[in-house]
Structures are given as C-alpha cells and as structure tokens.
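Journal club prep — side note

Before the paper discussion, L.F. wants everyone to see what a predicted structure for a comparable chain looks like in token form. Sequence:
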Amino acid sequence: MASKSVEIEIKLAVRDAGAVRRGLRRSGFRPAGREHERDTVLDTPGLALRHAGSLLRLRRHGWRWTLTYKGPAATDTRYKTRPEFETLVADGNRLLEIFANLGYRPMFMYEKRRANYRPARGRGVASLDVTPIGTYLELEGPRSWIDRTARALGFHPQDYITESYGALYFEYCRERGIKPANMVFKASEG
C-alpha cells in the first residue's frame, strides 16, 4: 500500500510523560499501538538529498518495513509541512542492497519507542516518543487540530519544535561536546 500526502507536524519536548498520557486520555485520545522503530536515513555520499531538503528513510517497526520519501519543507515557521510519499516494503534488507547499488548509503540511524494515540473524533495522531536524547510528543494533523491538542495538553506555540530527530540529535551532541554517531539506544536501554 502506498500513500502520498502532505505531512503537517510539530514536536514538543516532554518533561513528564505520565502527565502527557493522562492529558491525552482526558482529551479523549485512545492508545493505538506501541512499537520500537529503527529508522535508517539514506543519501548519496555527497548528501544530495539533504542539500535538496529531502529525506529518504527506511523504517523498521516490529516485523514491518516502510520506505518514506519526504520532499523539501514549505516555508512555515510554526509547523513542519512537507510532501510525503510512503509505501510498505516486503524486505528492507534487500531494499538496502538495491539502494547501495544505486549509490544511496545509510547515513544516519535513529531509534525511538513510540506509543501512538488517536482522538475519538477528528483527524490526527499523537505519538509519544522515547528517544536516546529525551521524550517528545509528536502531533501530526491539520494545523487547527495541532493547536487545539497542544493547548489542551498545556503547551503553547512557542513550545513547537519543527526540527527532525536528526537535527535534534546533532544539537544535543554539540551542546554536550559529544562526537555524533547514530541516535540509538545502548544495549541495556533498547
């Protein structure tokens, strides 16, 4: 199954995951699955996709694989808005071999433990992501839905984060004087 859409999302840094979960339940959200995700970002050695503002990502979640292409983000300072094409993949490891032969290599890997929540009504999804650099709430849906949901959970527009997990990770490393590698859990954390 393939899909094309425009992704509109924000992230919010979460200090108290329990409070966010309780707030989601009070706001009528229901759990919609938990999974461990491992994402591999692919690019050419010259970083052609990154320089074009695009992303090619292979995600493994459970036994499933999903390939995603994200186009350049629109100029929108409050939300991250970009075209997104996504499809399920039968064999992610074989696809990595195909991409390698086309000149695309894994450039960055990142992991998260994700709990998805769906509202009783309306379009949108709230994902509570535990990552090696902190916990984030990702809200994806129409702009007005994002604003209402964030407000109901005690967040404000100035709390909105539009950077990718990769950008957040590299900033985290820079602030701490850590040499960046991949944003993955240590064996004891995963």
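L.F.'s comment for the group: The CA atoms of residues 24 and 153 lie 7 Å apart. Keep this in mind when we get to the figures.
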